[in-house]
Amino acid sequence: xxxxxxxxxxxxxDRGGLAWPPPAGDPAAAAMPAxxxxxxxxxxxxxxxxxxxxxxxxxxHKPPGDIHALDVAGLLDPAVTVFSCRAGGQLLAVxxxxxxxxxxxxxxxxxxxxxxxxxGIGRAMLxxxxxxxxxxxxxxxxxxxxxxxxFAPARxxxxxxxxxxxxxxxxxxxxxxxxxxxxxxxxxxxxxxxCRREAPLRPRRLIGVQPxxxxxxxxx
Length: 220
Hints:
Layout: E1 7-9, E2 35-39, H1 45-61, H2 72-75, E3 80-87, E4 90-99, E5 104-112, H3 121-135, E6 140-146, H4 152-160, E7 164-165, E8 178-184
Parallel strand pairs: 5-6
Antiparallel strand pairs: 1-2, 2-3, 3-4, 4-5, 6-8, 7-8
């Protein structure tokens, strides 16, 4: 998956529903927008609004001293690349990669719009970011998430992708309200020290994206 190209997702339903988009011969196919993931500007109005909701979620579940979610200014850091997932122009999710050093990157700002949850959007975004990280030559991808019950779906998503718990990395300090996870992106070479407890990501088909209902309109 080349990091300079959009990901065009043609995936099956998460919950046993009909495949989406439908077969080309189905009249409904022409009416359904493609779901794409591509680099985006955090200053865009809808991206800014979803980033704000991401920050609100973090502040409502974590103590003030342990919130490291990036605001728009932080996402404009040259070391950070922001991606959006859209269907027909409608923003479904955001995610970001932050370069820590030549071989190590951090997963940031993973957030799916509430009305788009349960359709595999987060899983598709994670798969895209893993592909971009590999294309850019990173050997290890790490993340910091919450230990609270509200973050259980995120922890499960990362664990299913092969991320395992690790010690705090970069400038982070140990915290009872945070969990650190890491994944080796290079199965051919010896694992770096910060990735020593990782399991390689198993190749698998992307499944699970369904589009938002055509009758529902999402406000930015």
